[in-house]
């Protein structure tokens, strides 16, 4: 008799669990759109300043997609009138998959336009070119749809094109891309 009662209770619980519907509505939801940006700053014989604005959409609790842009300016002074200036900007789609709580993997395609100028006592040389990049990596961040978020990631350019802003042109080695940033949902959840 006890087994029958226990089995009946388990059956009722399991039916109740299967009867639960996903409370999230299907289709586009404006409250799942977000905007954000990252910033890069560095100092060494000059300075580095970069911004990475993005707009995205949380498809579900595990997957974000969007468009990211990048703007980077680098200036270096080597002494004796020798200097180097680098300006790059680009944009492309990205995907971010939150695999375990605060950890994510990410992939981003970029198409960059790059302008650089090298000057010394003999004159200056300017060059303008374009280069595609495919950045892949992983990161850590706070994640709850509808709330402000913070993240940090490290990525590398798997295309390794010689003109990529993420490849050292002298040694042809990959330069890791460290990003830290924030995101705000356009319609935040009320507490």
Structural commentary:
The protein has 191 residues and is mostly beta strands. The protein has one domain (31-185): Porin (Beta Barrel). It has one helix and nine strands. The protein has one helix spanning 2-19, and strands at residues 33-43, 46-51, 54-58, 63-79, 82-100, 103-120, 123-141, 149-157, 177-185. Strands 1, 2, 3, 4, 5, 6, 7, 8 and 9 form a nine-stranded antiparallel beta sheet that branches. It starts with a helix and ends in a 6-residue tail after the last strand. It comes from Lacibacter cauensis. Keywords: Signal. This is Outer membrane protein with beta-barrel domain.
What are its keywords?
191 residues, Porin, 9-stranded antiparallel sheet, signal, Outer membrane protein with beta-barrel domain
